Amino acid sequence: MTALMDFLTVFTQPQLLLLVGLGTLAGVYVGAIPGLSVTMAVSILISFTFSWDVYPAIALMIGIYMGGVYGGSRTAILLNIPGAPSAIATALDGYPMAKRGEAGTAIGVTTVMSFIGGFIGIGVLALAAPLVSDFALRFQPRDYMLLAILGILLVGSLSQGSLLKGIFAGALGIAIGAVGRDPLTFAERFTFDFQLLEGGISFIAVMIGMFGVSEALLQLHHVDKDAVRQKIKRIVPSLATVKKHLPLSLQTSSIGVVIGALPGTGGDIAALMAYDHAKRVTKNPEREFGDGAMEGLVAPETANNSAVGGAFIPMMTLGIPGDAVTAIMIGALFIHGLNPGPMLMIDQPDMFWFIVGCLVMANFFMLFFGLTGIRLFTKIVEMPRSVLIPLIMLLSIVGAYAVNNSITDVYWMLGFGIFGYFMRHYGYPLGPVILGVILSRLLDDNWRRAIITEREDLGRFFESIVTSPLSLILFLGVILIFVSQTPLWTWAKARVFGRKENAK
Amino acid sequence: MERIDPEHHDGTSDATPGGEPDKRRPGEMVFAAVMVLASAYLVWNAWGIENPFGPNGLSSPRSIPLATTSVMVISALLVLVNTARLPLDQTETILRDILPVTVMLFAAFLVLYGVLLKPLGFLPTSALFLVIAIKLLARRGWVWTLSVSLFSLLLIWLIFRIVFTVLMPSGIVPEAEVIQFFRGLMSGGAS
């Protein structure tokens, strides 16, 4: 009963309702404007809202997250420019539809499908999180350690980039997180005898640099690209269209929730995998994939929105972020004095149900804003990048400064911005860096707890891993990711699946 | 999974990070080499972390930093080797595709902004930055540039100063007095 009341908090307080609405509206536009990403917006916002109460701050950020994941689809359809990473797959079939003059239909289907996907994700979150957190109470320190490693590795292996670069990025993040005085023994780590470094590097500075400034610098390459105008007629899709694609949307939503719930992987990876799935299961599409198939829109859009709910599961129950945005949310909760993890669900269940309530509300707002305001939308999206880029840079600086009122943070932010710019150019994923920074403390603490209980004996440590089913599964997961990247895996796959391929 | 590569994929997503899968971009070797050297230095630095309360065993503050930096060196080395094997992308040049003059210029602007922020204050520094940046990027007339940049600065300042109550260095502008003046006007009008 109290859970229900907490869930309804957001619906009964006009101020919170307004913030979720504002956040969603802002998120739709942030997501839609190419060059502004949700991760960027949330990382900048966290520095501005940290003096607020925790409820309003979370309400605003959830709105932005939900709206932003959806908003990226708009420009993907209209301009063939994915406004957010999670809309990359949407552009593949959305833009061909728009070229045929079916932009309205495409946007309508996308909106409704995002809504359905969003709800499935939230539903799974509400049902699964309490169970997972009960289960998580039995987790040993070594399990947390393995989960953290697994999360950092997953980004590299499920994405299309090189796993090696992902591993490098993750390790770099952990090292950055270790800078400063060790909280347990007060030993100096990576301080190079600078007093400045003793307090560590503010993770917000790292975040804003990597997702704000480095992206703005990258966008300087595309300053002159013009927006294309599209005419839009009918938006609200017919019931028949929705019904027809419901089975597929249920499948792809499940993919989205699972991928979202895996630590480290978020909407962008979920969308690509769902697109891939749709391509395999759709037998007779009305049009070919890549040529404007409706299925090619339904799959990524349901998946990326259901991944939102999924991403909250490990974040709320284990304190391990499901993707880059939830990594930042964890940071926000830390700043507000909360400690995400299994104890959060026991100590402050109100927080959990409040977040679920905000997500539901944000999902409704998303549907509403998605189906209205197209005219205003086309105007705002045409905002020239020559104005947008300097503004992003300015906001990044203000954001980095605001958290600690420290100019040093601004320099860190700029340094990581320029470094991140090169990382992007050379194909190093940035997600693992942020995950590494956020998880560094958790990894370090849990490793030390685990090895101390085993009396500093590696043999005993591995023995406990092998004898506990959970640790063993996690450990095998880590091993599997490594093996899947070596030639051995390709060889084994060829042996097992080879005959089937030949038989076709 | 089949490789999905829409035209605009440029490193904005972790699902499709930037870079080129089967070519070496200009400067990529240098970057990879610098990463190896930097990681090696960090390993050496991590080795120097001393536990003030006991032996430097597996549970000491040294272990995780040492482990992660070692992973960095190994992965950076493997990346370097893999990169060296790839053919160089002949169609790209550093100055055009990796580090164009605009990017260098803006990086310099940002550093300059950081330097000026404290002595000059938020409003003058930001106004200067926005006007120059927008003028350079948009190449439009002064009236347009000035009105767009000053209007957006005003908007940002109002939102962050009033709504988010973020305090930026006021420098040479007597911000607090101005706000107080307007507060006085408002309350005066209300009573």
TrEMBL record, chain A:
It comes from the Bacteria. The chain crosses the membrane at residues 16-42, 54-72, 106-132, 144-176, 196-218, 320-339, 351-374, 386-404, 410-440, 461-483. Residues 17-435 form the DUF112 domain. InterPro entries: DUF112_TM. Keywords: Membrane, Transmembrane, Transmembrane helix. This is Tripartite tricarboxylate transporter permease. It comes from Marimonas arenosa.
TrEMBL record, chain B:
It holds the Pfam family TctB. Keywords: Membrane, Transmembrane, Transmembrane helix. It comes from the Bacteria. Coiled coil: none annotated. Residues 1-24 are annotated as: Disordered. This is Tripartite tricarboxylate transporter TctB family protein. The chain crosses the membrane at residues 29-47, 67-86, 98-116, 122-138, 150-172. Residues 31-169 form the DUF1468 domain. The lineage of its organism: Bacteria, Pseudomonadati, Pseudomonadota, Alphaproteobacteria, Rhodobacterales. Residues 1-12 have a biased composition (Basic and acidic residues). InterPro entries: DUF1468.
